[in-house]
Design brief:
Layout lengths: L3 H26 L14 H25 L6 H25 L8 H4 L6 H25 L2 H27 L12 H23 L7 H35 L2 H12 L3 H21 L6 H28 L6 H4 L13 H24 L1 H4 L8 H8 L1
Length: 389
């Protein structure tokens, strides 16, 4: 079987090269080549930031289930979960750093923030979480099961904190009715669990080095059932949020949902978010062939792509509805508009950052001995027999 890294590496190198072009434009021209404006100051990068950070937390869930709760079936997927969590966290934070007007002042978030600021607390939580991920990699290298257990418990507590905190950053903005919801932190947390676990499934299928055995089948059954359960839960949360907010009839909320469903980028909702994020994975996982690793991996990939669209449909519509209906006509200027589509620089940098994160993951599992040769680590005859039973 051709190793996935053999054909993925050249593709990821091309992505990184595109990102280098975008980074050069960003450093030389600042925000002049970006499609942001005074009315829409956030765009593609912020949407990807909250998505990638969520994926990191969802990937960590798999590591927590194995190391923290002792679910033996997830031994192999858990080996990929930690490097995925670290790579996606780095990519998300890199994108939000690029979005700052003065990137060199990012350290102000540590030294000049208010203790009542949600953003300040999120920065410190991210920092602690990143340290936990690094510590878990060290513990994996040293084969320290006790350390992995306690680090996974601490990391999961941080995941729940920033997973809900990301939603709270948007939900507390009373001036934006489309975001102002107490359910948003819960939606963020469980969509993160779903998309992160989906990406771990993709990696487990794509980079698998072992023949199908009892342990592999047990992992597939567990992940299939977990994905179906999280899909069902996310459907309930999405329906509750949309139905209740639409029933209120608030004009800004109704206009935002109309823009999401029938606006210029309607396909992001119907094809990416709804089709790839929910319908296709359910059909794949619920079918009689859904137990096969390839089908589970394809469902995970569809989920990961679909929920990237979900976050774009959250960020942009909330900004595209003006606070005053006549505001866009009051002043005419390219930067004073409520329409937005990412510029080439934004696309290049987004592709490059994600490509760099994926390349870092591939290199890690190919180079680091405790990831590359993980089949020799932690294999116990009793555990294998228990899974087979």
């Amino acid at each position: 079987m051709l190793r996935a890294s053999k054909f993925l590496t050249p593709v990821l190198l091309v992505a990184v090269a595109l990102g280098a072009v975008g980074l050069w434009h960003r450093l030389i021209f600042g925000k002049a080549h970006l499609a942001f404006g005074s009315y829409i100051p956030w765009g593609l990068w912020v949407g990807l930031y909250i998505y990638l950070v969520g994926v990191s937390g969802g990937a960590f869930l798999v590591a927590f289930l194995h190391h923290g709760l002792g679910i033996a079936a997830l031994r192999r997927p858990a080996r990929y979960a930690v490097p995925i969590a670290l790579a996606t966290l780095g990519a998300g934070l890199a994108l939000v750093l690029l979005d700052l007007g003065q990137m060199g002042r990012f350290w102000y978030l540590f030294t000049r923030t208010s203790p009542t600021s949600l953003l300040a607390w999120m920065v410190w939580v991210y920092t602690l979480y990143s340290l936990v991920l690094v510590a878990m990699l060290v513990a994996m290298a040293r084969e320290s099961r006790v350390a992995l257990k306690w680090f996974s418990i601490a990391g999961f507590a941080l995941v729940v904190t920033f997973g809900g905190g990301e939603g709270a950053l948007f939900g507390v903005l009373g001036s934006k009715p489309f975001w102002n919801s107490g359910l948003l932190p819960i939606r963020f947390l469980f969509s993160a669990f779903l998309s992160g676990m989906g990406l771990v499934v993709v990696a487990s299928v794509l980079f698998r080095r072992w023949p199908s055995d009892a342990e592999d089948q047990a992992a597939g059954r567990f992940l299939r059932q977990a994905l179906l359960g999280l899909l069902a839960l996310n459907i309930v949360l999405e329906f509750a949020e949309i139905s209740v907010t639409l029933y209120t009839g608030l004009p800004p909320v109704v206009e935002a949902y109309r823009l999401v469903m029938f606006g210029p980028h309607w396909w992001v909702f119907w094809i990416v978010q709804l089709g790839m994020g929910l319908v296709i994975p359910i059909l794949l996982l619920a079918s009689p062939l859904g137990a096969r690793p390839a089908w589970v991996g394809l469902a995970g990939l569809s989920i990961a792509i679909g929920y990237a669209g979900t976050k774009q449909n959250l960020v942009l519509p909330g900004l595209a509805i003006p606070d005053f209906r006549t505001l866009p006509e009051a002043f005419v200027h390219p930067r004073l508009t409520v329409t937005y589509f990412p510029s080439a620089t934004e696309w290049y940098l987004a592709i490059g950052v994600i490509g760099a994160a994926a390349l870092a993951f591939v290199l890690a599992i190919e180079v680091l001995p405790f990831l590359k040769d993980h089949e020799a680590w932690g294999t116990a005859k009793g555990e294998t027999h228990r899974l087979a039973a």
